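Quick start: load a record and inspect it. Here is Zinc ribbon domain-containing protein:
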Amino acid sequence: MRPVAALNDHEVFDRYPDELIDHDNIDHYRAMAERRLVIRHCQDCGYWIYPHRPICPECLSENLRFEEVSGRGTIFMETRLHQLRDPDASIVEPIVAAAVELEERTGLRYLSRIVNCRIEDIVLDMPVSLTWIEEDGCIWPAFEPAAG
Ligand SMILES: [Zn+2]
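Running the structure step on this input writes:
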């Protein structure tokens, strides 16, 4: 795969104009634009930190680094959104929003969408894997049923 040059800060803001991007999460979005899901990882105690924080909640270390996660997890919780928010949006409803528990640590739950799956087939604890969707010019992580 051809490596993508890292976007500068202005390009990240341009790619995600409706997101609240700040010092603590901009590298998350920068990677997302390259279809890489990164989460802060404490270099002192090994704790994976999400939601984004500048300090490890386990050991108070500031020695954190964004690292790519495996993209494997299970559905911890999900909800279905049927309300049409924007009639001009390219989103096909209903949307399945889920807290996916990533395999990197128990309780590390990433909020995302479930795609490529019939709604009636979605069950809690279902194994899922990372995929990417593009909506209105923005690239977003999503999860689909794991192969096998
Ligand atoms: Zn730590």
